[in-house]
Amino acid sequence: MVKHIVVWKLKDEAHGNTKQENAALIREKLEALNGRIPGLLKLEIGFDFSNTENSGDIVLYSEFISRDALEAYQSHPEHEAVKPFVLGARCERRLVDYEV
Question: What residue ranges define each of the domains in the chain, with the CATH number in brackets?
Answer without folding.
Answer: 2-99 (3.30.70.100)
